[in-house]
Amino acid sequence: MSITYKKAKVLSNEKIVDGIFKLVCEDENSIKAGQFYMLKLDGQTLLPRPISICEKTGNEITFLYAVVGKGTEEFSKLRAGEEIALTGPLGNGFNLEEELGKVAIVAGGIGTAPMVEVAKRLREKNNKEIIDVYAGFRDEVYLIEELKEYANKVDVTTNTGKHGHKGFVTEIFKPEEYDTVLCCGPEMMMKAVVEMCKKKNVKIYLSMEKHMACGVGACLVCTCKTKDGYKRSCKDGPIFDGDYVEL
Asked: 78 and 140 share a domain?
């Protein structure tokens, strides 16, 4: 399968907290909240990296990424005016056109990134809609001010207690107060949130963040287990019904 990358101009690439960078590039594509791009450089690391769309404004696209290996370390050295290769948008995105009622966004760590565009699109759809955010982090927090711009409230937890409630985000989240839950973060956290929602009969959708090599369903690296067997997170997802995925 042929995959086409195009060069995109880097507008900014800044560290927002230790190990977390915000990359802004030029991009003219229309996107859906929850989709992702594959990003790569002509550096030592050959494989591209899947990065969720944090926000899309006009012809600018924002990505948030954690520096966890050689590939993302190379990304962190990019400067304004340089170029990076992109292909996307990829994946299905959240279906925000259906009636979701009172919405809770539950996110953990870098899984908070795609929820900025999600919250923005929900707010644009209905200015009276209730959108509450529950965001969990290890120590440092980020994107809170951006989320506050669109959400009715943003509650934060940290493992260390440096910000907000000390503990896990599941300790402050009450699914029975919502009609729909949108979730992204570490798999163990999402599993706990799904179980909480099932007990209260609350609809939940997940954004499955998996390691990917191609992003278009050809390599089968990113499979996740579902009620119908294994599905590709990139091509069939990354958004799945929480009742459908087996975590």
From this structure: no
